[in-house]
Amino acid sequence: MNQNKNPNNIYGAFELKRIYSKNYLIGIIAAILLHLFLIITYIIVSPNEEKSKLTEKLQIITYVDLGPPPSIIPNEPQIAVSAKPTFGNLKAAKKGEETTEFEVPKGSSEVGNVKVEAPKPVEKKPEPVDETYYVAVDMMPEPFGGIEKMQQNVNYPEQARREGIVGKVLVKAFINENGEVTRAEIVKGLGYGCDEEALWVVKSTRFRPGKKNGKTLKVQLTIPVSFRPN
Q1: Residue-wise pLDDT tens digits, 183-201
Q2: What mean pLDDT do residues 130-148 have?
């Protein structure tokens, strides 16, 4: 077959195949060189940008003396900042000479004796005291040993004995948290010395204090004191 009549030769297929490898190699080399150029350019340019950013971040701003900060309390008078106080001119001491800490400026006057008043003691207000005497609580006051023990201390008055007085004197007793009778008064009396004896017996008796919810309280209690001849 004649080579000139081959269809591949007519359309240039062999020519394209012959130069394909050469063109492929040139393209690979060009791509590599382009990438190297871009990488080198980035390496050169990037550090300068990073340095400029660091320079902006590390920029030191100096301030002048602004004085005291503004007050957060409205309408508060501002305190002027004065210079460091001076107390006269310092004077060099000579050997053997009595010295003071500073030289008193000429034309200054003596201060004299300054009276320092001691601070007045703060008076503590007494805490309010509950003076309420309750009538009914969970546990009413009771004499130690019971009413019978208290009754044994009663002395029948001679005047009541002569008159044949028999009965009960009702005494209202005001008993505090310690079981002590702070006050007593006659509710119903018999006279003939019985009232005075009943008051003395009740005031001399020690009681178990009244309680409510487990707390001792002041309680008023009416106590009968019996009078009869032995």
Answers
A1: 999 999 999 999 999 999 9
A2: 90
Residue 94's identity, in one-letter code, is K
Return the minimum-mean-pLDDT range out of 19-33, 112-126, 127-141, 194-208: 112-126
Distance CA 226, CA 154 (A): 8
User: Around 47, how many Cα atoms within 13 Å sit in the side-chain half-sphere?
Assistant: 5
Single-letter code of the amino acid located at 42: Y
Phi-psi bin for 52: left (phi > 0), alpha (psi -120 to 50), beta? Answer: alpha
At a CB cut-off of 8 Å and minimum separation 6, what does 168 contact?
A: 188, 190, 224, 225, 226, 227
Count of residues in the chain: 230
Structure-token pair, residue 96 = 């053997």
Tell me which residue of 136, 137, 121, 215 sits closest to 177, measured CA to CA: 215
Amino acid type, 148: E
Q: How far, in whole angstroms, is CA 180 from its chain's centroid?
A: 40
Q: Cα(199)–Cα(121) distance, rounded to whole angstroms?
A: 44
What is the C-alpha separation between 188 and 206, in angstroms, rounded? 22
Q: Where are the beta strands (DSSP E) in the chain?
A: 142-143, 167-175, 181-188, 207-208, 210-212, 215-217, 219-227
Query: Tokens for 228?
Result: 């009869």
pTM: 0.44
C-alpha to C-alpha distance for 201 and 198, rounded to whole angstroms: 5
Residue type at position 150? M
